[in-house]
Specification:
Layout: H1 6-33, H2 38-46, H3 65-78, H4 80-99, H5 102-109, E1 120-122, E2 138-143, E3 146-157, E4 164-170, E5 180-186, E6 192-197, E7 208-219, H6 230-266, E8 268-269, E9 272-273, H7 278-306, H8 310-343, H9 350-362, H10 367-379
Parallel strand pairs: 1-4
Antiparallel strand pairs: 2-3, 3-7, 4-5, 6-7, 8-9
Amino acid sequence: MFQLDEEQRLILQSVREIVHKEIRPRATDLDETGQFPWETVRILAENDILNGLLPRRYGGPEVSFFTFSMIIEEISKGSASSALLLITQAEGMLPIALGANESLKEKYLSRLAGASRVLTGMGGTNPSLHLSPVSSGIRADLLGEKYLLNGKRCFIRNGSIADFLVLYVYTAPSEEGKGVIAFVVEKGNPGLVLRRDENRMGMRGSIYSEMDLENLEVPGENRIDSEGEGFLNMMKTLSLGRLFTAAQAVGLAKGAMDEAISYARRRIQFGKPISHHGQIQLMIADMATGIESARLLTYQTAMLFDQGEWKKAETVSAMAKLMASDTAMKAATDAVQIMGGYGYMKDYPVERMMRDAKLIQIDSGTNQMMKLIIGREFTGIS
């Protein structure tokens, strides 16, 4: 159904080798220490993977959304938090690529070219647990030729280490989506105040930050879209982010299943490997069926985006994220169950996968929100 060309096969072969040699061996240490994977950043950057979606005109490889999703899937088999590097980079780059004027694109996108280790990110949410990257908790006021931003953001991926961030803010909260503007904010601005980096249950090889915007001055030329167009830019970026999160979930689920199968073939019980027992085979069958279904839906979503069918893709991306993340959670939990007490121990990676999978159900919009998006689309409710 999905035929790969020679370039895609070579890319995936290279990614698999990197995962085997560099990423999977580091996954446990990253989880236990909670350290950001700077070495992984270097490796991905030097292999032209870190910014796979970067347009060629700015020095990037400009792979398709389909190819990028497969790359994320492969990396997630070894380390879901390392795959989060690519998702975060994409979400910080796409708002500029999709909407900015040429001078702003040249200024920031060119910084991501080649073996660059420049990091970016997007948005975060309001500490009041507002579910959108934009809310009335953060707003911008125009003062001459610059904007003054005030508010609070939490759960900003790469927040404390990003070289630049994309923030969505209101200029007119009463107008809801009509008053949304996207800005590029530089690291080191004194108005961007780090409160803390979050201590997380899973995805520990990543950074989520809480930050305050205290009279943060942003020049007018750092505005990505004209007023009123920022909401559409945000929705496109979020929809693509859900596609990438779905790919991450598929990869994690496959990694968990592989671990469970490997263990089941080695573990002897009642005189034979437990893989011979029907109950284990039934659990593996459920895993394999769920993973393949989630993968096909994820790939279909990627192809829709590649074909420019944005309206349909936005709804299907919510379906893919919902299905794939629930599949990842079940696969990881069942892998722990198959491995019994050993699965609960940190000697094996499935307990880490189970903790990582929980965040995928929440990240990029909770699965309850995904159901609302899907339900509203099919019922015609605005």
